[in-house]
């Protein structure tokens, strides 16, 4: 009995020992876990704090991504065609850097950046249609308190044309210092109508003074004039033979025809689309045509005398300034030709300003910029403005301010080689003239002798609903009189 009891106690002792060891192992494991886990937890927390600080620093240095939207450029334009990108994804841009060029049915527009940052995304391909109020690009802006996200609103046309300094008609930069802006405000001048001659198109004080002088008829001081105007061309050497000069001039390059062998269909865009609408509306007008010829012999002699004087002042003098000024003098006597009618032809508006347009053949197609307030300008002022418009036309930089607001139009088909034409009225205008090339033809003088004369054909079209043939004929006779006797223009110049 004692042996059995002793054996049972031995078995019980072993069981208790094993259980005790198991419990001790569990306690040690728990203690070990409790001692290691807080260290692991503190290490993970440090990593989290480090990573959060790193992300915070990265967000501060890189800045937010802002959607740069196409703002309203006025004239009721709701869509444009992207003609060219000046940046690509990953490029760094600064404020006022050009982003892209877009083209509406009225003008070409250069869009510039309002932020410093990196281009992250381009929303459109070349020749794609971009919508007003929709994003053009995504810009990852640089950090700083000056970074303000663009609001999700479309600017009003007034702000887009006058106050917004980051979007401008191409060639009409609105970058200016506060002093220049104050000078413009004091003289009631819109910066959108002034062409800057400073770096990157910045408007200078001299540009404001020049614009003001042109509007008021004031005389610009010679020193200021020399700063604004381009230097005259270098005179040709007299010793250079004419044959050498002719040989040095390369012949005009003739584009070779391209035969693709298949039909190509593409949508009408930009200016071509605008021409469809304008000409469709124009052909609803009953046109009245009138043709005549003008003897420009005296004008040819006068221009040859004045051309060197104009070139010395940095301006190329053609015949067009005389044609335009003579038209303005004639419109003073026949204001019905400088009018417009509403769509239903129920009301007529006589325009106070003579904004005479000149049809130009450009790479973008037929464009008609106009010279504003010709009734206030001299022949030299008109020539200076035509030089500017022609330079913008060659560069494809004619903007809305140059292409809108016309009241009367002249089309110089003679520059290409035409003689007669049947010009189409540009509504809401009511008259237009087409000028042929100047030809040396035999004519009889007062004594009956045959003499060479410089003859130009002119073709007029008028809205026959409000303009009769007699009025058009009388205007043409007065215009011809001014050009055949250019000295008579001095009596009516103001």
TrEMBL record:
What is the protein name stated in its UniProt record?
A: Dihydrolipoamide acetyltransferase component of pyruvate dehydrogenase complex
Enzyme class per UniProt: transferase
- Encoding gene (name): dbt
Q: Which reaction does it catalyse?
A: N(6)-[(R)-dihydrolipoyl]-L-lysyl-[protein] + 2-methylpropanoyl-CoA = N(6)-[(R)-S(8)-2-methylpropanoyldihydrolipoyl]-L-lysyl-[protein] + CoA
Looking at the keywords, is Transferase present? yes
Q: Where is the Peripheral subunit-binding (PSBD) domain?
A: 175-212
Matches recorded under PROSITE patterns? BIOTINYL_LIPOYL, LIPOYL, PSBD
Span of domain Lipoyl-binding: 65-140
- Cofactor (UniProt): (R)-lipoate
What function does this protein fulfil?
Answer: The branched-chain alpha-keto dehydrogenase complex catalyzes the overall conversion of alpha-keto acids to acyl-CoA and CO(2). It contains multiple copies of three enzymatic components: branched-chain alpha-keto acid decarboxylase (E1), lipoamide acyltransferase (E2) and lipoamide dehydrogenase (E3). Within this complex, the catalytic function of this enzyme is to accept, and to transfer to coenzyme A, acyl groups that are generated by the branched-chain alpha-keto acid decarboxylase component.
């Amino acid at each position: 009995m004692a042996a059995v009891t002793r054996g049972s106690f031995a078995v019980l002792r072993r069981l208790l020992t094993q259980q005790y060891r198991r419990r001790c192992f569990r306690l040690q494991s728990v203690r070990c876990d409790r001692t290691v886990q807080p260290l692991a937890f503190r290490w993970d927390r440090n990593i989290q704090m480090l990573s959060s600080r790193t992300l915070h620093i990265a967000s501060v240095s890189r800045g937010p991504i802002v959607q740069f939207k196409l703002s309203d450029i006025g004239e009721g334009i709701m869509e444009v065609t992207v003609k060219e990108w000046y940046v690509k994804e990953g490029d760094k841009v600064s404020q006022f850097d050009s982003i892209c060029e877009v083209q509406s049915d009225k003008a070409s527009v250069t869009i510039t950046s309002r932020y410093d940052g990196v281009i992250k995304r381009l929303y459109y391909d070349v020749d794609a249609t971009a919508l007003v109020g929709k994003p053009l690009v995504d810009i990852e802006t640089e950090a700083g308190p000056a970074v303000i996200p663009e609001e999700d609103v479309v600017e009003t046309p007034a702000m887009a044309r006058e106050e917004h300094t980051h979007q401008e008609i191409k060639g009409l930069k609105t970058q200016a210092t506060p002093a220049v802006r104050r000078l413009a405000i004091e003289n009631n001048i819109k910066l959108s109508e002034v062409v800057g001659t400073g770096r990157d198109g910045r408007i200078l004080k001299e540009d404001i003074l020049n614009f003001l002088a042109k509007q008021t008829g004031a005389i610009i001081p010679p020193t200021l004039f020399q700063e604004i105007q381009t230097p005259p061309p270098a005179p040709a050497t007299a010793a250079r033979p004419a044959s050498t000069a002719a040989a040095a001039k390369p012949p005009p390059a003739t584009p070779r025809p391209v035969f693709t062998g298949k039909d190509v269909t593409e949508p009408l865009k930009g200016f071509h689309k605008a021409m469809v609408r304008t000409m469709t509306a124009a052909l609803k007008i009953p046109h009245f045509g009138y043709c005549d010829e003008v003897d420009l012999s005296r004008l040819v002699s006068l221009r040859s005398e004045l051309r060197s004087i104009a070139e010395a002042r940095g301006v190329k003098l053609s015949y067009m300034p005389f044609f335009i000024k003579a038209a303005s003098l004639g419109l003073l006597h026949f204001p019905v030709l400088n009018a417009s009618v509403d769509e239903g032809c129920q009301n007529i508006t006589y325009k106070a300003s003579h904004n005479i347009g000149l049809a130009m053949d450009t790479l973008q197609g037929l464009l008609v910029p106009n010279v504003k307030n010709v009734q206030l300008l001299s022949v030299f002022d008109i020539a200076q403005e035509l030089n500017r418009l022609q330079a913008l036309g060659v560069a494809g930089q004619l903007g809305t301010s140059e292409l809108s607001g016309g009241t009367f139009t002249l089309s110089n088909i003679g520059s290409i080689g035409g003689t007669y034409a049947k010009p189409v009225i540009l509504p809401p205008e009511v008259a237009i003239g087409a000028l042929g090339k100047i030809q040396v033809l035999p004519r009889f003088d007062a004594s009956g002798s045959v003499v060479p004369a410089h003859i130009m054909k002119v073709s007029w079209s008028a809205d026959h609903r409000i303009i009769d043939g007699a009025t058009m004929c009388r205007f043409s006779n007065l215009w011809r009189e001014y050009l055949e006797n250019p000295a008579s223009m001095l009596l009516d110049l103001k």
